[in-house]
Each structure stands twice: as C-alpha cells, then as structure tokens.
Amino acid sequence: MYDILIVGAGPAGLTAAIYARRASKSVLVLEAKSYGGQIINTPDIENYPVAAHISGFDFATKIYEQATALGAEVVYEKAVEIIDHGNEKEVKTENNSYKAKAIIIATGSENRKLGVDGEDELVGRGISYCATCDGAFYRKKNVAVVGGGNTALEDALYLADIAEKVYLIHRRDEFRGEDANVKALKARGNVEFVLNSQVIKLNAQKRLESIDVQNKNGEIRNIEVNGLFVAVGRIPENQNFAKVVNLDSAGYIIAGEDCVTNAKGIFVAGDNRVKNVRQLVTATADGAVAVSEAVKYINSLA
Fold this sequence. Notes:
This protein is α/β, with parallel strands linked by helices. Helices cover 24% and strands 27% of the residues.
C-alpha cells in the first residue's frame, strides 16, 4: 500500500513525485514507456525559468534523478484500469495490481500528427507541434501552420510577429476557430491563407526545406518553408480511466486549477486535464498542486 500512486512519469508526474516525497509520503510512479514524456523529443527548451537552454532529454533526466534520489519508486508498466474502493484505490497493469490511498493521473497527451512520410524524423528539424515553444527558432523565416481551430489560429498570430511569412493551411474553406482570430490574421500583411488544401509531402535534406500542398481540385503547390507547425489537435491518454473520472467531449479529465477530479482521492496533473495553457511550466505546476490536494485528502482519512 502506497500513500500516493502516480500514473505517468512526464514532467507533471515526476514533479508530483518530488513533492510527495518531500511531504514524507510513499510514492510509486507507473510509466508505460520511458520517463520524461513528450518533452524528451524537444531538442532545446528556452522558456523554462532558470534554464535558458536545456535539451528535453537532459531536463527529463534531471527531474527523474531528483525524484528517485528522494526515494520515489518508478515501475515501467502501463496502467490499464483504476478501481476506486473508497479509502483504498487500486491500479491494475497488464501483469500486476498496486494499491494506494490517493492517485494522481499524469498521463499527458499526444500530438495528433499529419501522417505524412518523414514527419517523425523531422521533429526538431523543421516540424513542431508547439509554436510558443519553438517559434523563436524561426525568426525572420518562412513558416506554415496546419489546422483550423483556435490553436492553429493563435499559433499563426503568434508566429506572424516573429516570422517573415506565415502560411495557414486548412483542409476546409472555413475555420472552426473564433472569427475574431480569423479577422486578426486577415489584417496581417505577412499571413497567407491556403484553404481547401492539405500537406501531402515534406521535402528535406538535413532539415525541412519545403512542403507540397494539394488542394481539393488535385492541384499541387510547392511552398518553401523552414518550419511547419502542426496544430490539428491532441489526443489525451485518459480512456482507460473513464469509468472513475469524468472526461470532457475531447477526452480530457475535468478538473480545475486545484487538479481535483470528481472522484475523491483521485487527482490529475498535466496536459491530460482540461486547461487553457499546456506548457512545461504549467505541467510541473500541476504536479505540485495535485500533491498538495492529495496530502490534504490523505490526512483527512486519519
């Protein structure tokens, strides 16, 4: 029986482990793949306080080492089910079962990909899923944004202040995002809409050099860009826990800034919860907040 069981060893989960151990709670972290989560794919982090430049792998390794040095136990098994027994929670993996007084779900979310050949290989070399994270690398260069929701529109607005030219590519002729954002983009002289179109090919040597875009009539256009920002949605990894915590229509766990879910003793931290800003710094903040609430809950059981 652990005090706190954390599902996910990304920045949110490992921060939670650090804070839980500092609160003298026994901690088990279950991780399906490898520690660090999505951040390990980021070649250079520039927007995290204190560290002006650090690779995602180095960041993840440092936070992992800090958590384990404090006594957090990390087991590499995928959590497939959470069972709420009241004051006792159970997490089942494919091979084992673990029990705890409180659970923090920190499974994060995955970027929805375009599905174009070479996409994975070019991440960090022209392909990005976060304009606020990587936009500064493309100052005075040509970039493209793919998507039609508010994230894509906001990314294009953000990049318009940085890049020389921004191409906004959307497979339909109307955007799902707010009209105010569309009007703001139309007012920008360096933004070009490429509608009824989709990216079909990535052209690169060592880095992305251009993209081929096909419109609904089958016509193909080659656009020279240094960066391609994909904003076609994210996939939260919460479906295995839908029986115990409430999810919104997109699959995110419903919780406020206190990280408290509808299920007593079960909390959420990081990109897999409903929130407006999904950044490294907000993920780590969630980890600290979730532990604070978990400790209050555990103390209430005494």
